[in-house]
Amino acid sequence: MRRIADCRLPIADCRASARARLHFLSILILGLGLLVFSGCASHPFVGSRPFNYQTDTFSYANQLVWEYHYDANGKWVHNRREPPPDYHQHCFVVARSARQFFENAAFDASQPVADEKTYGHLIRKVVSIDPSHPLPIEKKIVIPGYANLREFSAAHEHLLKDECGGAWESYVQRGHWRMIFPFSRASQEKTAERLLADLKDNRPPVVHVVRFPELLINHGVLVFDAKESEKDIIFSIYDPNKTDGPRTLDYDRATRTFNFASNDYFPGGRVDVYEVYRSWDY
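Above: the chain sequence. Below: its structure as tokens.
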């Protein structure tokens, strides 16, 4: 059985047994029975500025448990990373939290630096806000002493890791039920159009990148920019596994297919994409 990519879900990194997978899918299907009648209306939101990778991302990365590479026979293989990472399986938590700080926090470097207790309280307030219900400008939570999230997270890495959420929140992300159903080319075209619309409103969407049921990749990233041409759309993404710069998620208009480039946890190729944290059932 192939080991799936190290993309921050416990089912991905721990290779759940067939029985555990069936149990997981049963829960998802059961939940769908309620969700399908709820609709998925989202709440309009227009941000005041575009997302900036250099200032609106965390200074630390979601780490990999496994090291991946091609062997001499061209097979994609893995080895356990040594020493083991101390912060992993948090891709959805990191991507979601980045968006929550972008939409709900206001950094103010002119104010004095506060103590850890104060920052812990403020972090919990920011990440407790439903991502589908961003705060209006006048109600944003002020983070004193720092100019932006990148600077704040460099100074308070451990506090943010502790307060933004555990790995279990990636495992039970409310939109996971969607990945078990087929993705049509029409649905992927609609997704690409919706992502563009979100970006025009300065609303950086968090998306689930998946290859189900193979689960070669099972990952959460934040989309923050796009370049369009007649041939394709190149979406710029914040990958929680990386801190050195943006990555891309490419959409081919002719085939209506998303493609994710090869990296140190995915061999590259076609993926399916859908937005999460858009409404209460996603």
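Confidence is low (pLDDT under 50) at residues 1-24, 26-43.
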